[in-house]
Design a protein that fits this description.
This protein is mainly alpha-helical. It has one domain. Helices cover 81% and strands 0% of the residues. Helix 3 (22-47) packs antiparallel against helix 4 (53-70) and helix 3 packs across helix 5.
């Protein structure tokens, strides 16, 4: 992806001001996206904590595509 695209998405001076390189910026964005996904899956599982383990797994499984649709940029960053 072009540097201008990253700059446009996250702010013009974001990469050069806070990260040593474009790769460092992308790594931080990807780590943040995976962390957000993990939080979402854990919240979904916890919402079904009083139900059998299969229901907890189903809740987390259904939360995954919902997160991907709600956060397309993060999904793209993590899986492309």
């Amino acid at each position: 992806m072009p540097n201008t695209w990253v700059a446009h998405v996250r702010g013009k001076n974001y990469a050069t001001r806070y990260f040593a390189s474009r790769d460092d910026l992308l790594t931080a964005l990807i780590a943040d996206a995976f962390s957000a996904l993990a939080d979402t899956l854990e919240q979904a599982r916890a919402s079904a904590a009083d139900r059998p383990i299969a229901a907890q797994l189903l809740a987390a499984t259904l939360a995954y595509p919902a997160w991907a649709l709600a956060h397309p940029f993060d999904f793209q960053m993590t899986y492309t």
